[in-house]
Amino acid sequence: MPQDAVELLAKTDLLAGVPEDRLRGLDPAPEWLSVKAGETLIEQGQRGEAFYLLVHGRLRVFVTNPDGTAKRVGEVLPGEGVGEMALLTDETTSATVRAMHDCDLIRFSRESYKQLMETSPEAALQVTRTVIKRLRSGLGGGGGKLLYGAIAILPIGDHADIATFVEMLRVQLSAFAATRAVTVDDLGAQRATQIRGQGTMSADTRRDIHGAFTAIEDENDLTIYLADPTPTAWTALCLNQADLVLSVGAVGDAPNLSEAEA
Asked: Potential cystine with 222: which of 130, 143, 147, 179 (Cβ 3.0-4.6 Å)?
């Protein structure tokens, strides 16, 4: 009997606890993918598009050094996956993943993840748990140290319940590190008014705001900044402060760059 892609995907750490009927209702649905020995699945420096669960075969992970030499940093065995960061970020991939044997994989796309987030934010946070592990250790990292101290959440469109998503993300991250979610109002009424005001902020005002950022980040291991969906002064501050930017939107919102990203 052929193996069921959704059934296998639902057993992974990435999507543990997500009802299979939710996964079967996604469009595009999780799909099978075959890669021959020697072929490249993910190329370092390219934009990631999906998470891949390896079902059969073996993958090897390489990082290209500045001098052009490739260093092997790990292997992926059946039941393990790669590419989960592509579901949440627009960052380019940090490593090349190549098939050592003929491989059968299941592909779970970013578009499918966005639909999952819209229909069930709680289910979408299953994906976030795996990304949290990557944030803690990184490829080839270790020691449980966070690679990022500040994350900016950039809303795409006006339909997603971003505040709810951010709060659930904060709760999940708090299980690993002291985490605080920050909006412009959390900086105090005076600073919020200055940031929302029209015109260029003075150097003294900027230094004061940066000092507030520093004080918040010094008290926490990880800070989540909730930006505006438009290119406001607050959005610019969030993007400049962040080590990592996550674009979050609802199904039906344009998948291209938001006005703030453009």
From this structure: 179
H, E, C per residue of 28-59: CCCEEEEECCCCEEECCCCECCEEEEEEECCE
Is pLDDT of 111 > 90?
no
The pLDDT value recorded for residue 137 is 56
- Residue 53 CA to residue 82 CA, distance in Å, equals 7
Every domain of the chain with CATH number 2.60.120.10 lies at 5-115
The architecture (CATH level 2) of 5-115 comes to: Sandwich (2.60)
Distances (CA, A) of 179 to 170, 172, 229: 6, 9, 22
| Contact (Cβ atoms closer than 8 angstroms) between residue 224 and residue 151 | yes
- Ranges in the chain annotated CATH 3.40.50.300: 148-249
Q: CA 251, CA 52: separation in Å to the nearest integer?
A: 22
pLDDT-derived band at 249 (thresholds 50, 70, 90) equals: low
Nearest to 42 by CA among 147, 154, 151, 139: 139
Confidence at 139, pLDDT banded by 50, 70, 90? very low
Looking at CATH, the fold of the domain delimited by 148-249 is given as Rossmann fold (3.40.50)
pTM, two decimals, is 0.63
| Enclosing H/E stretch for 98 | strand 96-99
- Name the more confident of 200 and 47: 47
Q: Judge residue 182's burial from the number of C-beta atoms within 10 Å of its C-beta, 0-12 exposed, 13-18 middle, 19 or more buried.
A: buried
CA proximity to 8, closest of 56, 48, 60, 64: 56
